[in-house]
Design goal:
- The chain has helices at residues 4-18, 24-31, 33-49, 57-76, 90-107, 122-141, 149-166, 176-190, 205-226, 235-259, 262-282, 290-306, 309-321, 327-334.
- It is mainly alpha-helical and 335 residues long.
- The chain folds into 2 domains: 22-52 and 203-335, no CATH class; 55-201, no CATH class.
- Helix 10 (235-259) packs antiparallel against helix 11.
- The protein is globular, with a radius of gyration of 22 Å.
Length: 335
């Protein structure tokens, strides 16, 4: 009576239509507000009890973010059956995410010596081999759309670990995770259905607003960290340039809402960075904790959007450590 393919497609359509105006991540974040308040109040105490100190917090935070992104990509991806085209660049984008995260983790774990298989007791040796094979199987199972899919994903993780251990370049603990989160958000925007984020072409204002917030926070963090206040722009010229940047930003947001385009999102991020950099360059000084506030904001917004509550919790804890100064003044200063 019914074609199985039509039934499956109808089920996917019903799921997507139900999430158009009420994305799950929004309601999950609202329901988790009491948990976020508890994290704000007691998060530092909990991390202290499990061995997190001022000297290792940055390293452990970065490694945790990269590990969570790997798990999220592996477990939330792999929905090749809902893609509209038979060919897609998503396998290669997912492999890029897995490679980058694996490289980041391995580069910051060089001080941990790799145990030698030959010197282990037999039980531990079997357990390590079984755990490695199970991890490879899980990573490979995330890409079963073609025979080369598992090879690509497993190879990306292994090559990232190998280069991270051997190559001398060590990514920044401060902005390495930021780049990973921005890259993942961009890939998620390319094919929202693949990552269970929404329906391409029917993203709501909540979906696009969340992506824009991630891009804006990332741009603000980079601008406030790498651009030095100089106070060399005349006020009249600064006001004109600022209004020009605001108008272009508004037009870019409107264009992004209409098109849901990745190039438009990347261009909007560049425009936001230029506007924030102009604001910082115009000022004679900015508060030293502004970059950290923007990094924490990126972590919170990315964690809420993707449903990775661990990253949201780490961002809330990072924000709770900063001064009690009113953050709205910094936001007005940048905008």
């Amino acid at each position: 009576m019914f074609n199985d393919t039509i039934v499956v497609q109808s089920a996917f359509s019903a799921f997507n239509n139900a999430a158009l105006f009420a994305p799950a991540f929004l309601w999950n974040a609202i329901l988790a507000v009491p948990v976020f308040i508890m994290i704000w109040m007691y998060g530092n105490t909990f991390l202290g009890r499990i061995g997190w100190t001022e000297s290792n917090t940055a390293k452990r935070t970065g490694i945790t973010i990269a590990a969570c992104i790997i798990l999220w990509t592996v477990l939330f991806g792999g929905n090749y059956g809902i893609l509209r085209d038979a060919t897609s660049v998503l396998p290669f984008m997912c492999a890029a995410i897995l490679f980058t995260c694996s490289y980041f983790i391995a580069a910051h774990a060089r001080d941990i010596s790799v145990p030698k298989i030959n010197g282990m007791p037999r039980r531990i040796r079997i357990a390590c081999i079984a755990a490695t094979l199970a991890g490879a199987a899980i990573v490979g199972a995330s890409d079963m759309h073609a025979w080369w899919g598992p090879i690509l994903q497993i190879g990306a993780v292994m090559f990232g670990i190998f280069l991270g251990r051997v190559y001398r370049f060590t990514p920044s603990l401060r902005f390495g995770p930021m780049i990973l989160m921005f890259l993942t958000s961009t890939v998620m925007l390319m094919q929202p259905e693949f990552f269970r984020f929404g329906q391409l072409g029917n993203l709501s204002l909540v979906h696009m607003g969340a992506i824009v917030i991630i891009g804006a926070a990332f741009s603000a963090a980079v601008a406030t960290a790498f651009v030095r206040p100089r106070g060399r722009i005349y006020r009249s010229a600064y006001i004109k340039l600022k209004w020009l940047g605001r108008i272009v930003t508004i037009l870019g947001i409107i264009l992004f809402i209409l098109t849901e385009s990745v190039p438009v999102f990347l261009g909007l991020t560049i425009i936001l960075w230029a506007m924030f950099a102009l604001s910082v360059w115009h000022e004679r000084s900015i508060a030293p904790d502004v970059p950290d506030r923007m990094i924490a904001t990126t972590m919170i917004s990315f964690g809420i959007t993707t449903g990775i509550i661990v990253i949201t919790a780490l961002g809330i804890i990072m924000l709770s450590k900063l001064s009690d100064r009113n953050p709205w003044r910094d936001i007005r200063q940048l905008l």
